[in-house]
Amino acid sequence: MMHERERWQLILSRLKERGIVRVADLVGLTGASVATLRRDLAKLEDSGQLRRVHGGAESVASGQTALTATSFDASQTINAELKRAVACAAADLCEDGDSIILNAGSTTWFMAQCLRGHRMQVLTNSWPIAQELIAHSANRVVLPGGELYREPGIILSPFDEDAIQHFAASKMFMSCYAITPLGVIESDPLIARAEAKLLSRTENLVVVADSSKFEARGNMVVCPLSRVSTVVTDTGAPPQMVDHLRSVGIDVVLADPKQMKVLSAA
Amino acid sequence: MMHERERWQLILSRLKERGIVRVADLVGLTGASVATLRRDLAKLEDSGQLRRVHGGAESVASGQTALTATSFDASQTINAELKRAVACAAADLCEDGDSIILNAGSTTWFMAQCLRGHRMQVLTNSWPIAQELIAHSANRVVLPGGELYREPGIILSPFDEDAIQHFAASKMFMSCYAITPLGVIESDPLIARAEAKLLSRTENLVVVADSSKFEARGNMVVCPLSRVSTVVTDTGAPPQMVDHLRSVGIDVVLADPKQMKVLSAA
DNA sequence: TCTTTCTTGATTGACTGTGATCGTTTCGCG
DNA sequence: CGCGAAACGATCACAGTCAATCAAGAAAGA
Questions:
Q1: Less crowded by CB within 10 Å, the N or C end of chain A?
Q2: CATH numeric code, B4-62
Q3: Residue nearest D18 (alpha carbon to C1')
Q4: CA-CA distance, A8 to A103, in Å (whole number)?
Q5: A84 CA → C18 C1’, Å
Q6: What is the third-level CATH fold of A73-265?
Q7: Residue A146 and residue B142: Cβ atoms within 8 Å?
Q8: Where are the domains of chain B?
Q9: What is the block-wise mean pLDDT of chain A (266 residues), using blocks of 10 residues?
Q10: Would you call B162 and A165 a contact, using CB atoms and an 8 Å cutoff?
Q11: How large is the angle between the packed helices B34-46 and B4-17, nearest 10 degrees?
């Protein structure tokens, strides 16, 4: 006999994977009866952890917010090796005593893991990054005000007044949806706005983007390339794109995922 | 025969491995009787090290960091029963759709646990409360901007500009250091200031304070009693203090820790 | 040694979660 | 539009679990 909470965990994890579950599937998955599973779904809906639909339940995240951002755990698995290498190389650009900004993103989250030994001031609008830094590093953490969106773990605010207007950073490390000759691209207007707001607190923008980010996609331009000081990517980046970036005066750092260390810096 | 502490260690380590333990499992694991193990679980829950559920107990930090555990171990052990009763009674004052404020405090943290079924907007400057609400409830969470202080898990900012200036709450629930005829008392000036700032976003102040909070101590007055609408405390509160609060027009709710439900409301 | 206190284990009645069975509602297809 | 199949909510009986109580044993102190 499986415990109630175990079933809940199982249901929620399955829901996270697929976005929707059917009661019949859950019967096979948990071994419980349909009546019990219906009760489970009712309770989980009461506590807001899913939304029931006819035939099963769907993830509450998909319909709850207007954000198009993907769930954090999901994006974490895509190109994890590349992102880790890029994050590691970016972390090498930091020094103790710096004040830096990390926007919400999987690459910056990997970067936060590389900052365990550092002692800096870090401004971030990402809940998981703040969590990582507070729990496992000596860095000071500053947060912007706003609503905490559950599923992407991002703090967003529609207002301009904010305590972070008093924050001055030596560098901002920005993870993005894509980077093209038009500039740094995001897919969601609210997120783009939040990143632009963070960007106003520094003059030095370091874009961290693994080589898959050089495809043109997305539609919200956060800032033009002229605003970018440095791009940290991996050795798989398209050479003509690297050349172009360098031709407009951007430092490009290429991290080798095999060696997990910096190979070249323009 | 196994010693009490050995069992506790065993229970907690098992809880760390899996996210959940059943009483029946523990019988086989420790050799003790179910009655003893129930008592163990009750004690461990009182000290905040796990959460009892029907059939056993689950990890209090499912997917969370050690932050909540470390920051609340100290205050959680003090009057946990009273605080839980007070928190539960205070949660009954909330309705779905409300916008409320919870300041950082152990009583308000217990209260957050009572809000699992609710659907409200909650503004809080407490990291562990935000964590609890995001992970286990359907409530929306709003955070003020500022620095996140590690050990108490509080977000503080020396500046006035903040996105929360756009927040309007129907109620604020305030946990405090003490409450005296002079008003609501805190021990730290920075915390007092943060609470005063939160307080400015609502007209309705509900102070949640177990009966031990009526001793005069501390030195920072957050606000006078005239600002207080309601006090939620337990049946152990000094009668003359209850009378005095009522004489100045404050609603007093007395929660009975034995029955875990509201007995009287003035 | 005797007493006091604490811990333990068994018993009781009440409660909760579970699964099966109803009748009803909803969905999908012709 | 109407029909059948599937899904749903309500209800009931059963099993497992819970809190309270009491008695027995162990540990600590006088």
A1: N
A2: 1.10.10.10
A3: B54
A4: 32
A5: 47
A6: Rossmann fold (3.40.50)
A7: yes
A8: 4-62, 73-265
A9: 88 88 92 94 88 89 45 61 90 94 93 93 95 92 94 89 89 95 93 94 95 89 96 94 94 83 42
A10: no
A11: 70
